[in-house]
Design brief:
The protein is mainly alpha-helical. Helices cover 38% and strands 6% of the residues. The chain has a two-stranded antiparallel sheet.
């Protein structure tokens, strides 16, 4: 299990020097600090959890692994909520390449809908009949 001190400093430096991250962090500094405190002191989460499960107590809380969700961020600090498409324009393959970035892991529930959206986007981008 990873610990708080399992840090890739090169990756951390790249993140904190990115202008978009700096803008986002400044905008949500209070929220971010509360989340850090809650991660170090899980008992601080109880009142928030009680909004959803009133019976929950500190003894019900157990430390577990943290999750990481990759999120595309723009230079202005705004987050991309959905798919970002980028058409390749300089290539030797006739430029029929469409990149899909920031694709959330949908599981089986929406994979067909996502495939249709990508197919529709290809029809528009590449003038397919």
């Amino acid at each position: 299990m990873a610990s708080y001190f399992d840090i890739d400093f090169k990756e951390l430096w790249k993140a904190i020097t990115y202008r978009g991250f700096q803008k986002l962090a400044l905008q949500y500094v209070g929220f971010g600090l509360k989340e850090v405190l809650r991660s170090f002191f899980p008992r601080l989460q109880v009142s928030t959890l009680q909004q959803y499960v009133p019976e929950i107590t500190a003894s019900d809380i157990q430390r577990g692994p943290s999750g990481v969700r990759a999120q595309a961020m723009n230079i202005d600090g705004s987050l991309e909520d959905d798919f970002v498409f980028h058409r390749e324009t300089q290539c030797e393959l006739g430029c029929k390449i469409l990149h899909c970035r920031n694709a959330p892991s949908p599981g089986a529930t929406s994979s067909l809908a996502i495939a249709k959206m990508i197919a529709d986007k290809c029809h528009v981008e590449f003038n397919l009949s």
